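Researcher: We are triaging several targets before committing to wet-lab work. For this one, the compound of interest is zinc ion. I'm pasting the protein sequence and the ligand SMILES. What I need is the predicted three-dimensional arrangement of the protein with the ligand bound, expressed as structure tokens, so it can go straight into our comparison scripts without reformatting.
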Amino acid sequence: MPFYTFVCNSCGKQFEVRCSVAEKDSGSVVCPGCGANELDRVFQGFSVAVKSPSPSCGQESACPRAAACGGCCGRQA
Ligand SMILES: [Zn+2]
């Protein structure tokens, strides 16, 4: 089973959990610090096999990294 890294929305603790995708998706993974199940997945570069758009840097109109942004602003061309 893969390791997933989460950050707790409740207490801010970041931790790794070895669990199945089903367990992760069903919300049965809880924070070891406070027991909350409101967790955000932390994506770690190399292990990502997700086909999702590049995350926005939030500064699309004035991206400071426009030339070397890697595509977060859709300016890679
Ligand atoms: Zn927590």
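Researcher: Any quick observations?
Model: Residues 54 and 67 are 15 Å apart (CA to CA).
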